[in-house]
Specification:
homodimer, alpha/beta, Arc Repressor Mutant, subunit A, Nucleotidyltransferase, domain 5, 3 domains, 15 strands, globular, ATPase_NBD (chains A, B)
Chain lengths: 376, 376
Amino acid sequence: MTLAVSGGDLQRLRRLNALAVVSALRTAGPLPLTRLAGHTELARATIKEVVRDLVAMGWVAEMDPSTGGGKGRPARRYRFRAENGRVLGLDIGAHKVLAAVGDLDGEVLHVSRESITPKHSRRERLAAVDRAVDACLAATGTAPADVWITTAGSTGYVDNEGNVVVSRAIHDWSGVPLAEHLTGRVAGEVLVDNDSRLAALAECRRGSARDARNIVYLHIGRRAGAAIILDGVPLRGSTGAAGEIGLHPLFHLADSSDVLTSGNSGQAVFDAARRGDAAALNAVLRYVKVLALATAAMALTVDPQVIVIGGGFSRSADVLMPPLRAELETMCLRTPELRASTLGDECVAIGAVCLGVEHLNQRFFNPENGPVAPLR
Amino acid sequence: MTLAVSGGDLQRLRRLNALAVVSALRTAGPLPLTRLAGHTELARATIKEVVRDLVAMGWVAEMDPSTGGGKGRPARRYRFRAENGRVLGLDIGAHKVLAAVGDLDGEVLHVSRESITPKHSRRERLAAVDRAVDACLAATGTAPADVWITTAGSTGYVDNEGNVVVSRAIHDWSGVPLAEHLTGRVAGEVLVDNDSRLAALAECRRGSARDARNIVYLHIGRRAGAAIILDGVPLRGSTGAAGEIGLHPLFHLADSSDVLTSGNSGQAVFDAARRGDAAALNAVLRYVKVLALATAAMALTVDPQVIVIGGGFSRSADVLMPPLRAELETMCLRTPELRASTLGDECVAIGAVCLGVEHLNQRFFNPENGPVAPLR
């Protein structure tokens, strides 16, 4: 066998091998060297060398042998050091601000919450964001320098530079340079995205659509919004406006809940419909018709496998989903499966942590330059 | 430097190096060894070995030095052997059947055409397909065994198994097992896709949207259709139904040309509108309104960079596009750029060849097993 391997080739090969080991430890959990061979298809000698390098770089740790349990001398096991960095995820909504801190594997360690109203000023909302961040960092013992990335979800249309260009849901929020506000408060990069898009990602990674690669996510509540995941990736579109079907003049999705509530709370109408109240049932059917037309337009455009219903009204999925399914069946070639969100109102914050983790993965764990040593 | 390189690693490295050389020759054209270094970032010694292997496998040929021109002894140049295989692309429409033969780089060598009508039976249409294929193979001196892949574009909704499930445009066409009919007529794999999707791909690779990664393609003529390209890849959706916005009950896109023509030919109406005829201008505006509502629904869903207008009516883009742009601007957050198709009525057949080539690239030129030696 000739070994015409240049120095550049060898470096690249080492990167690929190291990434294979890191990936195996992150997906399969702590493993001994022997089991790493099966997960990576690398030779035992190569694995030993790669693990030694990864330990030196700080990406991998040898576990305390006493944790192994069982009889005899346990094989040394190695784990990915997800605690190397912290990931901050924010949900900045009309009525609440959430801050979540997770580790590099996206495990959420704590969520802090601040209440707010749509009428609060921009300054007050940003102050609530800062308070939620401070509280969450304190609760998790996270120094600002330990945060590797911050992802914020906001209602409204967020451009590729992290500005909230248009927000109909929040007074005084259109035009806020959110990325700019967040940059420098904690260390690391700042991403800003539409809240429904982050909720959709959360449902795909941790929620009711974990088995699906293509989904349409419909947020329904006092306000409505939508987002799309294709081939496992949130669809932003060319300018960040993908999923803004609510702007279409035939759908009136944004104000669709007026059809339902007429001044009552959605919950009250759903409860009455559940009891068989005819007026409430009619209101639900009118509302479902509006939702179905907008949802069908998205479904006929991207042909998703699953439609996930999230937002406050998704708690009444038992009332909403049967008529919604029936309406969609009259319009779609093949009607996607309808499911209700399982992540509740932390959905956006969880999605923000997920997006941050995936962004870090591309930066620190890619074949061009990864794995890169931790910042400290 | 330690060389802890296993046999498997080395094979993988060789594949990656060979793919880098093939890719450089396919994108930059014939090159001498010295220039391959700049295109691949491989060491000269490695390149020499890789090229020798690729010549032995039949993927690369040394060019006749006499073609070099210029003074002095020219450096030997190497080229990718795109002539190793032939790619067949079909467009099976309501009024015509086209067969195109291309090489492995997607260069179209010949197009054969058969006229047909929507009223012809399934058997007659399939016979026209066979005649077009035979004529195109004969014209290019292609033996059936030289065809590496066949891609057919059909009107209607095509499922993932290559059946035309629903066709409203062609009598007696719903339910035709098109992949099954084509399999075995010539060698190689058979792909079947919606015709608008292939036209969209052609516009992205060879037509008016070569600079764009995200497009919506709108086919307008006697019938209307749509397709989407995201991140350079045709969007099929979970079941092949992406782009079927024409089925939405609020848009009536499929029969939209009735609004325009009322029994006249579209061409006559556009010509009259161009002359300033008030009734014709009104008809065009009514038609544009229908188009704009359906197009906006797709644009608000996926946020494309460019909307390409194809199909017979795109020849009157000068009349259609200004009012269409104005309508879209009232509905979109950021209106995508509108462009007319530049590929004419061979668009679907060209797109079919493009898709076939890209499928072969994944099969023969991927890091897992490629480059694989030619079939013979």
